[in-house]
Amino acid sequence: MTPIAVTIAASDSSGGAGIAADLKTFSALGVYGASIITALTAQNTREVLAIEDVPADFVALQMDAVFSDLKIGAVKIGMVRDQAAIEAIADGLVRWSQTNVVLDPVMAASSGKQFLSEKAIEAIKRVLVPRALLITPNLAEAAALLRAPIPSNQDGMREQGERLLDKGARAVLMKGGHSAGSQSADLLVGPNGVTVFAADRVPTRNTHGTGCTLSSAIAASLAKGLDLAEAVRLAKRYVTDALVAADRIKVGQGAGPLHHFHESW
User: How far apart (Å, rounded) are the C-alpha atoms in residues 166 and 164?
Assistant: First the structure.
């Protein structure tokens, strides 16, 4: 059986993040990718110019079209801004009995542009976080979910991950890409403890779509039947290798994408 994963996220007109990054990641990792679009963006490697949300009923219709026909092995959820669409996605996950769900709570662009309103953040916490197998916040996103300061070390990351478990998350990957130090350490926090996945920090400006790529790489391995810890380990390695190779491709005038197809090009 062909492994299939679906991404529920926004487009990226420059091709580096969102739906584009997710589908490239699925393909690079040998998984067939389907997509459900939550918003259209006008953006490039330098800035996000505009966002148009897809109506909630059309998001739900996309979900029904995909899940009624394709045997989905895993779901990745990225940026969704509309409260009604967030609730429609949660209802769709229940309607189609989807439990292999990776939630990447995208709240802002790497350029700093804020995407989500407070109402949308509260809706994500209320209806999507409890339905996800894993949530993958960066340090700023975890702090926003908890209304807390951004953690400054691994002890703080661990503590916030455990607090997110208390709020209904089944497992949390606290991403340390925005932390200081020579290594980028991600903490997988679950009910049975914490596992640290560390890699040397890669000196490149081409990091556009890194978070999207990591969460979709995890979903790809889940679609293949791997367990969560192994899926995170392989995803961390894939993203690190894609960052190491990122400067081999020249895309845009700002923060370019990582190299999703570094093993095959």
Answer: 5
